[in-house]
Amino acid sequence: MSNQLLVLALLALPLAGFALTAAFGRLLMPRAWLIAVPAVILAWAVGMVLVYRTLSGQLGDGFAFTLYTWIPAGSFRVDVNFAVDNLTAALLIVVTTIGMLVHVYSIGYMAHDPGKWRFFAYLNFFMFSMLLLVLAGNYLLLFMAWELVGLSSYLLIGFWYQRRSAALAAKKAFLVNRVGDVGFSIGIWALWTTVGSLNFSDVFRVIPEKLAAGQLQPWMVTGIVLLLFCGAVGKSAQFPLHVWLPDAMEGPTPVSALIHAATMVNAGVYMVARSSPLFSLSSSAMVVVAAIGIFTALLAASIAFTQTDIKRVLAYSTLSQLGYMFAALGVGAYAAAIFHLMTHGFFKGLLFLDSGSVIHGVHDEQDMNRMGGLWRKMPITHATMLVGSLAIAGIPPLAGFFSKDEILGASFRNGFYVVWLIGVVVAGMTAFYMFRLMGKTFYGPSHVDPDVHPHEAPPSMTVPLILLAIPAALLGLAIGWPPEAGLVHRWLDPIFAPAEQTLGLHPEAFQVFGIDGVLVLVSVTLATAGLIVAVRLFGVRLPGRDVEPRPTIVEAGTARLRPLYVASYHKWWFDDVYHGLFFVIGGAVAQGAWWFDSHIIDGVVNGVGAVTTLAGRELRRIQTGRVQNYALGIALGLLVMAAGFLVATTR
Amino acid sequence: MSHSLDAYLILSALLFCVGMFGFLARRNAIAMLMSIELMLNAVNLTIVAFGAFVPALTVHASAIALMVISVAAGEATVGLAIVIAIFRNRRTPLVDEYDRMRE
Amino acid sequence: MSNALAGATVPALGWSWGDLLFLVLSGTMLAAALTVVVNRDIIRSGLAMIVAFAALAGIYVLLGAPLVAAAQVLIYIGAISVLVLFAIMLTQTKVGPIRLVFHHQAWAGAAAAVVLAAILIGVITGTDWPDAVAHQAHTATDALARLLFSDYVLPLEVVSVLLLAAVVGGVFLAKRDEPQGEER
Q1: What is the complex's ipTM, to 2 decimals?
Q2: Does the pTM of the predicted model rise above 0.90?
Q3: Using CA atoms, how far apart are residues B35 and A646, in angstroms rounded to an integer?
Q4: Can you give the pLDDT at residue C1?
Q5: Which of A149, A357, A650, C182 has a Cα at 20 to 30 A from A205?
Q6: Distance from the A632 Cα atom to the nearest Cα atom in chain B, whole angstroms
């Protein structure tokens, strides 16, 4: 198949799956997945062929093609065009693989849900939107796909719409995203007015040229990229728009794994990485990106310390890891950011699916205080989740170690010492809260409801877990070794070379026995320390080594650090502050506006209406309903016009 | 007189005015339709007269006049059918009793 | 025809035959048209309309447009007038001719017609038609036919479709209420 056909097939398969499942899914019940899952598996196969062709260098720098002209409005012309290069391919690996595994997993997870045909239709729709987002060749098409993934996210968070909390969470996610998207759309508009085209290749060529020629002020570029970044902040749930992601955990767990951990929330990272030629033009914007990223990483990690809902812990951990990625983008370590995106996609997807398996096993209980001792009852889930936790904690040689250390090393080498310092601390915190989660869920004394008998999940769920555990463990080694020169760098460095050149960065060889080795040692030490503290406090059971949890010490510790504990437990009161800002104050403003509207504006409108009604009632008298009266009117009007014309022309 | 364009145009204007008067004044729907036919004929006369006196229009005028006649035939068909349909409902051909449009 | 008569004059009056013919025809036509609009009896109005159409056909001949004259006779007299007469007969109420022929707004209509006539005549006589020639041309029928089937072929086809639509519409409107409906 030609490459263009591959791209189109990749998009068409999930779209067709969506259409067919939406149309006939009800008839397929109880096997509603019969169309949706094969469609995604086929899409995965197609995607892999495309990825292989791209990454093996058969296509050179990738390829782009135009399907048709989407908006031919005078000089405003936008095509539906696609661009495939190594960056796209890296994202395609994550999206198609995790997407496929999540689809398979959902067969088991959603087995008893009466509305699952809707679920699979939405999932397919999400796959289509996400692939479109990754493949899009211009900003407007990207934006459309961006909104489509937002829509499918909304639909899937609110999948159990009968639950008020789910419906509210869906609305919250949608509205918070709107805030960022306003900035994003203004940024796209600004790009259009300055460049006259929205194609990536045109934009990345013209903006630097105009900047160099002095037609564009540096502050304008900074403004444009910060507006684009607004969109990324919303979609990737960075501070201050991070509040929607934890609430989004109201959706079914496969959705949390696919959309809110592995793919959609990475869209912001992808967009910033894709726009690296623009971001690199503005060092102040880069600093903003790095600052917001690393701050979110710290903030989210601190909140994850005290949450008791297993999915919320993972959600805050996702925020924190996304923060790492933005920090990497901000310091200029683009390849490291995408590397972390890939590894994080796999291990976080794995962790979420594991948590889904746990929740499934203890009958829809999400509170970790009502779990414990599950390691013997759910051996596969336990083993895979252990792999995922070690990976995210950054323990070598698992995947997270490589990508996280590349980010930390790059921020140190590029002079962002504060970013490095916070990053290392967050790495330790990550290890701690992940093993707190493990301890509370699997090792500590059982607090499971006595009527509930935890059980291992069915094969359709455990097989994807095992399949995901492999890349979660080995992906870092496979594409990240040797450090700074692994496969991922060979793929992505050509893409980011222009941006790095603008920034004046020079790739340096990794010094195992130099500064880099020291940095790695520091971060691994901190991560291990966090891990050991968590294990000491919350226990572990491994072959040959059992550690009992020590709840008394935990309680004493929390009592001593009470203010911090409370702050973390209440998520630093962001929701309350936003509630105050937007509901109470905003509500009062809206009330005032409503009064103005109902009394002044409506008064004017109603006054006009009353006058019109009165006039109509009076003028109605001349409406006799007889045709000839009207005809006479026409004739007289004609006469007046003719006479007027005569007067005007003969003068 | 028969070689003057003005004479034909004045004749056409008079015919048109007669038709217009009929349309405005008659109560009978069919008489109104006949008045419309008179006005259409007046227009046709104008076209043919211009065709006769303006060399550039000679053949075209006849062609257009033929079109007008054909369209007038269609108009008469539909108009009379409407009159008959209304008549069947209201049992009267008098237009000033058709005032349902008032409501 | 008018060219053939152009030279000769009417013996008693000294007019050319063409002028005489024009006067007779136009007088007949206007009188018949007035009869159409003022006659109390609607059937007489219909008959007067036929006279007006016939006189107009004669004027078309005077203007050198024989094919239009033929069409006038065939379509207006042969088809439309007959249609109108049928319609009159179908809609005659048993009370006979309506006492009140005119609408109460007839005076306004008359005034409008007179004013319009005055304006039109003023305009016509006041305008110097720049392209007009003194002697009217004769329309060659073969040229007209060629034109109709070349430049005017699309309007011609559209008109034929329109006529078909009118026929279908007329049947539909007239038949709708009662299945036995009037034939036309």
Answers
A1: 0.87
A2: no
A3: 27
A4: 44
A5: A149
A6: 6
